[in-house]
Amino acid sequence: MKRVLSILTIVSVIAFACSAQAYDDADWADALVADRPDVAESSRTVGKFKLQLEPSFQFSQDRENNVTTRFYGFPTLLRFGVIDPVELRLDSSIYQIRTRSNTNYDKGPSDFTFGLKWNFLDYGPKGIPSMAVVVSCLFPTGKDDFSENAYVPTFRLIADWELPVNLSFGVNLGVDVPGRDAAGDKYAQFLYAASLGYAFHGTNDRLKIYIEVTGESPLKSNKADLRALGTGVMFLITPDVQVDTFIRAGITKHSPDWIAGVGGVFRFV
Length: 269
What we know:
The structure is a single chain. By secondary structure, the chain is mainly beta. The chain has a single domain, classed as monomeric porin ompg (Porin). The protein is built from 2 helices and 16 strands. The chain has a 12-stranded antiparallel beta barrel with strand order 1-4-5-8-9-10-11-12-13-14-15-16. A hairpin with a 7-residue loop joins strand 13 and strand 14. The radius of gyration is 19 Å and the shape is globular.
């Protein structure tokens, strides 16, 4: 992971130097807006007839009862604009690998999710945010150990604010109904994420950092909450290409101890 992050940093620095004079302010003003690496997704859509690919590599680790479980996956989101405020979305971790204390090894394909985002309100005066809804459904196409083994509908409401001094703030609120848990119970979950971002002055908003809090709260008593704190960095190499990295730490007993990843975004116009 350290080597990957070092390579990403070097590539970003070189790209920044090489592309500094290649685009004008108008190009950067129309740069892509990604739904990664933070959990709190953007309210913005990709635009009519535009295609945006957001692949990544992700690693998580959790230790419980003296057993260390690690997951490796490739979360990837494909977005296509039908009209300017509406996009179709296809999302999957594609393929996952799981190890337990370096002795138990398993692997297999993941489920995929199909959805739609509608950016129904644009930024307005006096603090009016940009807002969107995302409606999606997970299809249980993965291997049993890497699948919900049930159709999972999800609804999310998204709001973004542009703040002074290059700050931004985003909130996602939603609900889903995952498959039955190990005890055989089925219940809805309240989903939430809030992210505070900062775009460095003088970079045409190309270099951004953020901090966020995320969580899943079962709407049933005696079920464990999952919560995490995270941070990450995003860098636009060109108006149509982004590289990024993130790390999140679990802050409740049943949350993964930590999750980290690197990824990219590619817009085709």
